[in-house]
Design goal:
Blueprint lengths: L3 E2 L2 E4 L2 E4 L5 E15 L23 H17 L2 H4 L5 E7 L2 H8 L9 E5 L9 E7 L3 E9 L3 E2 L5 E2 L4 E8 L2 E9 L7 H25 L5 E6 L7 H7 L1 E2 L10 E2 L2 H6 L5 E3 L2 E3 L2 E6 L11 E7 L20 E2 L2 E2 L9 E8 L3
Length: 347
């Protein structure tokens, strides 16, 4: 375990001065949309035909292995400028199955980190799922569940989408709950598809309420590709997130990504506009400054230069695997997001 000596902490808009030599344990929590991490096998039960060697995308073993190597490099560096290591807990989405996740954490830069996996198969039509990775030395899962989102299209037919994953456990002995999401897309337009994300937010709220009924003091962090920005109704009206947070007796969900979004910062770009669909939000008790408990420090978007196109039509956009229908050999169309939790360790 690595310890860090901080002269001061910028904490939710306030300066908290620490005595010289005070030790803090720092844990990085992250989320990353891996953009279609498929294996090369054809699954007859899902629409993955494009992601095969014979398919439209010519998804070969060589390209698959390069994608794994690229993503592993990114994950290994998220938060490392502060902690010197990769995230302790990371939610991921757009993974086809447990095999691709195992292949990912077996990459040379990640294998020594000893990541564990919590994953359930979702009924999504393309076969993509969400999952949680965790360092076994930092987090001990004690319970998990996959919650189904039931949607229908205009004709009343079932619209199959991703489940929402909740994982409870101990982060360095502190009870924590993580909720991993990949909400319905904006296919068909933002306004027309908005009810699907409202439904996803309502399911999210029910899950959070259920956790809090069982554990009134629950420290919960939600994360995911929500396909909505921090100011959209699914966040502000359903989850009732707040973008300005400070320690208070009032219970609420704090969304640090709202402030970033209002500054024009995003995690994906489309038609010369940035969106911040990839978000982390958490219960307000993680704002409390109590010795011996984890609290929120700061958050950000991981924007290593190699993750962005350096030239051409999409200069400055995330460097993705395919662009304009052509293989580009990049990383993802989304940038990872992260936050730091800190805990004072005593004398």
């Amino acid at each position: 375990m690595k310890y860090f000596y901080l002269n001061f902490l910028l904490f939710t808009g306030f300066l908290c001065y620490a005595q010289e030599g005070t030790q803090y344990r720092i844990r990085t929590i992250a989320f990353y949309n891996l953009e279609n991490l498929f294996d090369i096998e054809n699954d007859s039960l899902t629409f993955d035909d494009d992601r095969t060697p014979e398919g439209r995308r010519h998804w070969t073993l060589e390209r698959y292995e390069k994608k794994l190597s690229n993503l592993a490099k990114v994950i290994s560096e998220i938060g490392s400028d502060v902690t010197g290591t990769s995230p302790d807990v990371i939610g991921i989405c757009e993974v086809e199955n447990i095999k691709v996740i195992k292949d990912l954490i077996s990459q040379p830069v990640l294998l020594p980190k000893a990541y564990g996996i919590v994953h359930y198969d979702s009924p999504d039509e393309r076969g993509i799922d969400v999952a949680l990775l965790y360092k076994k030395a930092a987090f001990l899962p004690t319970a998990s569940a996959s919650h189904r989102l039931i949607l229908q299209d205009d004709a009343g037919n079932r619209n199959y989408t991703r489940d929402q994953l909740v994982v409870s456990g101990l982060l360095d002995g502190t009870p924590m709950h993580f909720l991993v999401n990949h909400w319905p897309s904006r296919s068909g337009g933002q306004a027309r598809s908005a009810p699907n994300r409202i439904a996803a937010a309502k399911l999210n709220k029910r899950i959070i309420d259920s956790v809090q009924r069982l554990h009134p003091d629950a420290k919960l962090i939600g994360m995911g590709d929500l396909n909505d920005d921090p100011i959209d109704d699914s966040l502000k009206k359903v989850l009732k997130t707040k973008g300005n947070g400070k320690a208070t007796t009032e219970a609420f969900l704090f969304n640090p990504m709202e402030k970033l979004f209002k500054k024009g910062i995003g995690s994906l770009a489309y038609r010369d506009e940035w969106n911040l669909f990839d978000q982390l939000y958490f219960t307000s008790n993680l704002l409390s400054d109590h010795k011996g408990t984890f609290r929120y420090w700061k958050s950000g978007i991981f924007t290593a230069p190699y993750l962005l196109n350096g030239e051409g039509q999409y200069k400055g956009y995330p460097f993705r695997t395919y662009a304009g229908g052509n293989y580009a050999g990049g990383y993802s169309d989304h940038l990872p997001v992260y936050l730091y939790l800190i805990r004072e360790e005593g004398e």
